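Can't paste images in this forum, so I'm doing it all in text. The chain is below; anyone willing to post the predicted structure tokens underneath?
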Amino acid sequence: MSATRYTYLGPEGTFTEAALRTLPEAATRELVPMVSVPAALDAVRNGEAAAALVPIENSVEGGVTATLDELASGEPLMIYREVLLPITFALLVRPGTQLSEIKTVTGHPVAQPQVRNWLRSHLPEAVWESAASNADGARLVQEGRFDAAFAGEFAAATYGLEPLVTQIHDAENAETRFVLVGRPARPAAPTGADKTSVVLWLGDDHPGALLELLQEFAVRGVNLMLIQSRPTGAGIGNYCFAVDAEGHIADRRVGEALMGLKRICPNVRFLGSYPRAGASREDVRPLRRGTSDLEFTEASDWLTRAQDGRA
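Text version of the structure:
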């Protein structure tokens, strides 16, 4: 395994590369662009890279399905940290192109919902066609296959383009969440401001099946930050659920919730416990009464005494 190589969703000039370069260790790693999320993660699985940074959630469009599906299937991988990157787009064109000349535009599919209203207002006749990434869209414009691409302004120089319009976004404060993924290992110690990610499979489809899963978290005071259903491929109505929960697997409330889920789910895939980006211990909501590690320990001690006739 190359311990100094990190892969990411390429080509050069993607928001994923920009997010990766915010990590301190990126300065001492070989950063290798890949053509897709599966390719970036497969490089980790087969030992060509130590880790991969991939997008997993957008504040406008929601979960990035390619990443969620890859993490739910195949050889297990684990999330070690997350990065939040503010997202704003530039309209990149070949030098000299005017807005009135733009008939075709491109960008990553997740970009389209973030610029849809701007397109409707400024380029209502332009035809959109998706690209593998925003930077790949810029490359296609460079090659003359499209008139313009929505990408990060920082990608313009890489592809010899000009930012015709900047600061394009339909939603203020839009962000994309990226995760650094490696091979499974012992999670880092809790920081007090952590997140735990898992994928859960329903045993069978019956009334209240999803509620049973959620109750394992609720009764232990574990707050959920994301839950998204994904088809398993086994037929209509067969789903698994990607879940992000507050807390660390080493926290008693989280650990016991996962044990409860393992008892009722045919499959539980642990994707990691890692620090929440941009959060500190002071940002975490106070625990509900009865859900602290101390209270779990006291309850366990009480049960032992009761079993011994000393309650």
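The longest helix spans residues 293-307. The radius of gyration is 22 Å.
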